[in-house]
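hey
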């Protein structure tokens, strides 16, 4: 689905994406958090990506580090895909359940946070259409769709939650370094392509050029 939006004229934007073992924070946990940064008007190749994965320090430390990094970025705009309805709320709920301080994203305001999904959800509800996924939005703009494969299967949110995330956490518990490294490479690719997709979709919605580097990249990992 395309969505034409007024350009908010952000100077620098930061984007956030999380990966979990379940959509319900009472049943799942955070495995990875990705953060992308881009100065509007610069080539897409100048965007930077910081990928945070669970380690021996635990889930609360992962969330604290990732949110802290977002807040430290010199950005004036936050761009997410369903960040309002899922990502940020999930992080907050997990920290509450872990009895840790609530994470405070300084850019999570009506003025600074653009949730690319929220507007599309409202439009889809008005039309009686199904809610669009991120890949469908890329297709609508004729943007290439990336693919991450794990042992011959395309990684989806369901496969990540049901299988990939738990596999990584098991390897972490077992300190299985031979498996951890390639699993992290796989998750890096999955996260980075989603983050660039957020940036590309924001630019497409606002009528700006964005010559994506990672969209359309297909990588397969046998782990």
């Amino acid at each position: 689905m395309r969505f034409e939006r007024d350009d908010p004229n952000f100077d620098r934007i930061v984007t956030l994406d999380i990966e979990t073992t379940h959509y319900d924070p009472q049943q799942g946990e955070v495995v990875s958090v990705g953060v992308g940064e881009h100065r509007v008007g610069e080539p897409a190749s100048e965007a930077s990506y910081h990928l945070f994965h669970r380690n021996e320090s635990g889930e609360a430390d992962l969330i604290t580090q990732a949110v802290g990094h977002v807040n430290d970025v010199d950005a004036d705009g936050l761009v997410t895909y369903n960040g309002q309805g899922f990502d940020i709320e999930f992080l907050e709920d997990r920290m509450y359940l872990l009895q840790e301080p609530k994470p405070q994203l300084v850019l999570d305001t009506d003025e600074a946070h653009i949730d690319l999904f929220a507007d599309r959800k409202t439009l889809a509800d008005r039309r009686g259409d199904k809610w669009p996924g991120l890949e469908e939005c890329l297709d609508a703009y004729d943007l290439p769709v990336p693919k991450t494969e794990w042992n011959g299967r395309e990684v989806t949110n369901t496969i990540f939650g049901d299988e990939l995330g738990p596999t990584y956490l098991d390897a972490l518990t077992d300190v299985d370094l031979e498996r951890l490294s390639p699993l992290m490479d796989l998750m890096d690719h999955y996260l980075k392509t989603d983050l660039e997709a957020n940036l590309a979709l924001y630019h497409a919605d606002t009528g700006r050029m964005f010559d994506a580097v990672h969209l359309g990249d297909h990588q397969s990992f046998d782990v």
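The beta strands are 12-20, 30-39, 48-53, 77-80, 113-115, 147-150, 153-154, 218-221. The chain has one domain: 12-221.
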